[in-house]
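Apologies for my clumsy wording, but can you show me some protein sequence, whichever is easiest, together with the matching structure tokens, please?
=====
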Amino acid sequence: MEDPDLAIRAAAFKAVERLSVEAGGRIPWGVIERGFEYSGERIRLASKASGIFKPRQMSSALSIKTTKPRAGRPSWYRDQGAGTDTDTGLVSYDLVHERGHWTNDALRRAFERRAPLIYFRAVESSWYEAIWPVWVEDFVQQAGSVLLAAEDTDQREVSSVQAMPSGTLSRERSYSKGTRKYRNHQAWFSSRTRSAYGYRCAFSGLPLGKLLVGAHIKADAEEGPASVNNGICMSTLHHTAFDAHLIGVDPELRIHVARTVMLTSDGPLLSNLQGLDGKTLRVPADPMATPDLEYLEWRFARFEAAKA
């Protein structure tokens, strides 16, 4: 089903990307509340009073918002599975209890149109990180919740800031209870990691969202968890170099460049990699999202072994 809100939705994604980069991934509520300008109008991004939000200029939901977990409740930092549906690997989000509530209807319309949303997740009182695009994969009215999928960076079906060539900002339903579970977990991991790092490469500071991935420190194949503390946001170039052990990060967050790279001379791109040697890795503004020292030790030992 075609999304009549396509143009506003795409403009909202551009605005949120700009805010996320400027704020380093932790956006104050006052900035979110101001919204953005579109065709001479001020369009809001979220509502303080409601978790599900539809601007008056749109016909379906634009964003959803969560509150900060209460003391003692799990967060996604140490356990990416918190709030995740065990059958599908998708993230659960509660509807308004009142059946037929207009905000639930607005979210249902987004679901029916396969329209992407912005997910504002509270990291502390009045501070949020933005994750986008996310989709409602299943609308479970009886359970009073929906299941959300994040962008799959291994098979990108839509950019966070522009429409597909077909002119639709949507995607096909993708979850299943079998083969898709692993990919859904990893899609949320990558989206959460990029968001925690403010959509900037931790090595170079590059702020181009289309070139960024959330990369594992301890690899999937080695049972590395899909947790932000086991992730680093980096550009596709740095990700390739990291996986090839051409660059590494020690437990004190110092960057090391392999000797083979340091001894090679081949233009400015390689010089930029060489210039990283001895510098400090950029980390998220939220200390709870910084890389786990145990995972860094594990990965750096392999970097060191690769030099032998």
In short: The radius of gyration is 20 Å. Residues 6-23 form the longest helix (18 residues). Confidence is low (pLDDT under 50) at residues 155-168, 175-179. The chain is about 30% helix and 20% strand.
